[in-house]
Amino acid sequence: MTPSHPLLHRVIRETGWTYEALARRLNTSARVAGLTTAYDRTAVAHWLRGSTPRDPVPGLLCEILSGRLGRPVGPADIGMGHTAPPGPPTAAAELLAGVPGLRPPHHRRRHRPEPGGPEPEGRASDGPGGAGRDDHRVAQGDGHRVPEQRDGHAAPAHVAALSHPGLRRAAEDFFTGQVDALGGDATAPVLLAYLRGTFHSVLTTGGEDALTPLELGHAARTVLLLARSYADQCSFAASRRCLGRAAALAELAGEPSTRAIALRLLSQDALDQDQPAVGLSYVRQALEVSPRTPAMVQAFVAAQAAHVHAALGQRAPALTWLATADRLQGGARPDSDPFQTYRPAALHFKRAVVLGLLGDHEEAHAALDASLAARPAQQERAIMLTRVERARLYRLAGRAAEAAAELRRAQALNRGVHSPKAARESTRLGGA
Predict the structure, then answer these.
(1) Is the CA virtual torsion 263, 268, 272, 276 positive or negative?
(2) Segment holding 401, helix H or strand E
(3) Which of 169, 235, 279, 328 could form a disulfide with 271 if both were Cys (CB 3.0 to 4.6 A apart)?
């Protein structure tokens, strides 16, 4: 019988692998990406008969096949340019309970957010304003306890305090500022304690049906900020698991902005792992969601699309997406919601990363200059990461002395900020 996906059939034959061997390698790559899969030869046979797995599995397949064949393989090359729609969302209680490091208050033991297995190395290229250590342990503070019993009955999962929009916004503003300024070591334990206290009833009784969409949205945003904290700690597997849960919670809440941001950060994580095809899968999902979001969220998703295409060596679409990001930013209205706006400095930084990948170093340095000029002096962490990116540009151009000088400036700033991510990148660049 002729396969419905003849392109995939031809590529698999070219690798010399059996269906079982391909499925086994796919499951291994999925675990590295923070996914749980159990594919076998029958799954591969289903794909050959015409079914298509949902993102990011086609991207993972492309990465595996590219590595085996020694040439780029994209979704269109295996007949999977259009993926299946996402499946039904998981219950909120299950999503929250699966957040790395999160346990209800009565679980007192200390927890390591990085379970087993080596952590893949990645480049810190998403930069400041866009959205640790591997052996980091998370403190298990009690946060704000909510009684488990009331008049002999289980306490409701509804979080009364969060029904007030001002309280939710105040918490989101505070934690966003803390992540931006202080990074993961200072914020991950606080965010975990806040989640345990605020959603205690959900975690202990599984009463997800009592959560309102606003409460679900707040949970999604808080988990997303925790993901950024883990990424700053270089706990990348924990970060991507949090991002997946944040995207699912945002979908349950009907909140496209948070979902688009989580998908964009998953795309960036894939680039940091040198998996541009996976990054393309995630940014494609973000682009499907972003038309329902404010202009600045759309702008940053477009900038991520530019980054992915630049990483794939596709200059024309990368520049087109950069122009789209600029146009969207220019038409954006001011918004006090931290999840519906981005600072211009962050978009300048992203532009510099894209232009650096395209080899336009002079323009990339100009974008970094614009980013630094737009940063207030108190944003030391963002300024430090911008210095690290400039050092990377100097290294690419063979200007070792200038790169070393920028790294010294970054390291001096990091003595006050203590960002493991920046320290890791400085060490790697310094030894390049």
Answers:
(1) positive
(2) helix 400-417
(3) 279
The residue behind tokens 């209680």 is: 93
pLDDT tops 50 at residue 248? yes
Quick: pLDDT tens for 182-197: 666 778 888 888 888 8
169 Cβ neighbours under 8 A, 6+ residues apart: 336, 337
Cα 20 to Cα 16, 43, 44, 46, 159, distances in angstroms: 12, 9, 8, 13, 47
Q: How far apart are CA 318 and CA 308, in angstroms?
A: 8
Neighbours of 180 (CB within 10 A): 20
Report the alpha-carbon distance of residue 226 to residue 190 in Å, rounded. 9
pTM above 0.70, yes or no: yes
- Alpha-carbon distance of 62 to 126, in angstroms, equals 23
Can you give the pLDDT at residue 121? Answer: 40
CA nearest to 195, candidates 213, 163, 166, 172: 172
Question: CB neighbours of 41 closer than 8 A, spacing ≥ 6?
Answer: 18, 19, 20, 23
Using 50, 70 and 90 to split pLDDT, how confident is the model at 145?
Answer: very low
Task: Give the separation between CA 369 and CA 349, rounded to whole angstroms.
Answer: 9
